[in-house]
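Hey, can you fold this one?
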Amino acid sequence: MLKVMLNALDLFCGCGGLSLGFEKAGINILLGIDAWQDAITTFNHNHKNSKGLCADLSTLNPKDIESVLNNKSVDIIIGGPPCQGFSVAGKRIIDDERNKLYKNFVRFVDYFKPKAFVMENVPNILSIGGGIVRNSIVKDFSDLGYKVVYKVLTASDYGVPQNRKRAIFVGLKNSSDFSFPEKSVSHLTTSFEALSDLPENSLTDGSSYPIAANCDYQKLMRENSNKIFNHEITEHNERTKKIIALVPDGGNYKDLPLELQQTRKVHIAWTRLNSQKPSFTIDTGHRHHFHYKFNRIPTVRESARIQSFPDDFIFLGTKTSQYKQVGNAVPPLMAEAIAKKVKETLDV
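Sure. Predicted structure:
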């Protein structure tokens, strides 16, 4: 019997890390929606068989996008509603104006009634307010007829060179039991394996690789690419470079002389990647984390490698915007592992 390809809708899609993972698992992304034009520009550049729509989900009527979907069925809804409203405890969380965004995810699920949904968020969404938000999420979707499960997953368990943790909610319409993907790697990919084939200095977009791939992860990242993009280094001032040079591979501000330890008033300051371990969680482009060897912050391409974006995924916009797009994304390799389990569970 011919299996039908599943169609998915990605809400709050950003540049499309979650979409990319689902595409790699053989799921068709019909449409990605996000309110940030920069992210949609990158989404459209990289998701050639999909369409990215720049729109405010709090005012968008689901009916209005049916024409864009060409009346195709929406089998799965995926996405990560922004989580700012989930950072305070108590009843105020439920009343927080910013949680309208999450409620719009629920609204789209209610309208399209997909076979499944996948929603990702920050890990503490499960515990803040004594579980009030988690319970509210489960109830909202249960009331729509979904059997909901949730778990915190760690990206490095799925081949991503980063110990990024995300809370994942999965809901199934047919009450099937969903099992989250088991750890898929026996060896955790290190920062060295992620980055050691990328040079210290900037490369013009479209340059050839100056260093051969030296491990399986690098070969995977290069699979459909023979050029480098987004590898423009940040030039720090001499004083900053001298301070970074005092921090060893895997070290942080505690490795500095006492008089320099307070030069930046954040506990993550002057932290180097550890070449022999997966990276810590990278965020949207601050300037406190440094390459394990070079005296600079990682480039956008290096940050993308840490997130498991392949080298043929090209980020557009200003460099600041590109960092934010990378940092906001779901690691595609982790997304792919989740997508494969959803697909398997739906038995298509």
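The CA atoms of residues 141 and 318 lie 38 Å apart. Let me know if you want another pass with a different chain boundary.
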